[in-house]
Amino acid sequence: MDAIPGRHPAPAAALGTEGPPLLRAEALTRRFGAATVLDGLDLEIRHGEFFALLGGSGSGKSTLLRLIAGFDAPDSGRLLLEGRDLAGLPPQHRPVNMMFQAYALFPHLSVFDNVAYGLRREGVRGAALARRVDEALALVGLEGLARRRPHALSGGQRQRVALARSLVKRPRLLLLDEPLGALDAGLRERTGFELRALQRRLAEAQGTAFVMVTHDQEEALSLADRVGVMQGGRLVQVDTPEALYERPATRFVAGFLGGAN
Ligand code: ADP
Ligand code: MG
Questions:
Q1: Which residue among 100, 108, 184, 210 sits deepest, i.e. has the most Cβ atoms within 10 Å of its Cβ?
Q2: For residues 71 and 98, is the Cβ–Cβ distance under 8 A?
Q3: Among 32, 38, 64, which is best to mutate for testing ligand 1, by the most ligand atoms less than 8 A from CB?
Q4: 60: Cβ below 6 Å to ligand 1?
Q5: How far is it, in rounded angstroms, from Cα 132 to Cα 128?
Q6: What helix, strand, coil percent values describe the chain, rounded to 5?
Q7: Could you tell me if the ipTM is greater than 0.95?
Q8: What whole-number distance in Å separates Cα of residue 64 and Cα of residue 200?
Q9: 47 lines ligand 1 (CB under 6 A)
Q10: How many CB atoms are located within 10 Å of the residue 84 CB?
């Protein structure tokens, strides 16, 4: 079908639809005071997929990513990565990386040193370090810009440095919280498709999955293999863009997708 502009589904063979999922969330609950922000949420992320988490402001999207990354812990429920319970595992020991917005780059460090930062802290040095950083910069198409400082880059290039800084750790799962939010409309669409292409290359090379948060339904439907729609701390529907678009499970989903039904 081509009702969704710019949509190019991944070949089914590229997705890990067989065997155990990469990530499984079971009855995940998180409360802040009287507010239940995640309300017994269940979710499975497959190896190599591009998953979009779509929902309105305050629906719990960022909270869910923070739990997966390990910056916060659930009040109840479990998170399993390839069957391993993540409880108590600190963020730096999880094969998961959260991409922060480009403004979090170190302004006084070169592109190379920004990307190398996390690996240096792990004790990676010399040729091994250079190889990993070069690999990450090549993945995002910034090979020639390693010596620049962030201020000498465009907004889109800074975004790619932030991506390279996440990818250099070779995560199994990359979490992106509204990565395109700060970009203007034209750049936003182009960067979205670049992100999609990058995810495909990573999925083939090492099975990396992306979970991207967005409140933009067009972005979710055109980029993702599957979309989860969040409302009030729960996933109200998880499906392919085609199925969501054609068969929204609730009026809320239909309304959120722009009244497709
Ligand atoms: P989203 O990313 O979908 O916009 P969030 O996960 O950031 O939503 O937040 C969901 C709800 O939880 C919001 O009402 C927010 O105010 C609340 N919340 C998030 N983090 C905290 C916190 N650390 N303390 C108190 N309330 C929080
Ligand atoms: Mg958020």
A1: 210
A2: yes
A3: 32
A4: yes
A5: 6
A6: 40, 25, 35
A7: yes
A8: 24
A9: no
A10: 11
In 55-151, which ranges are continuous DSSP H helix? 61-69, 111-121, 126-139
Q: Which amino acid is at 141?
A: G
| Alpha carbon distance 250, 1 (integer Å) | 22
Q: How far is the CA of 31 from the centre of ligand 2 (A)?
A: 16
pLDDT tens-digit series, residues 190-242: 889 989 999 999 999 889 999 999 989 999 999 999 999 999 999 999 999 99
37 CB near ligand 1 (under 6 Å): yes
| Helix 155-167 / helix 185-206 crossing angle, nearest 10 deg | 20
Whether the Cβ atoms of residue 71 and residue 23 lie closer than 8 Å to each other = no
The token duo for 87 is: 């409880």
- Residue 144, Cα to own-chain centre: how many angstroms? 26
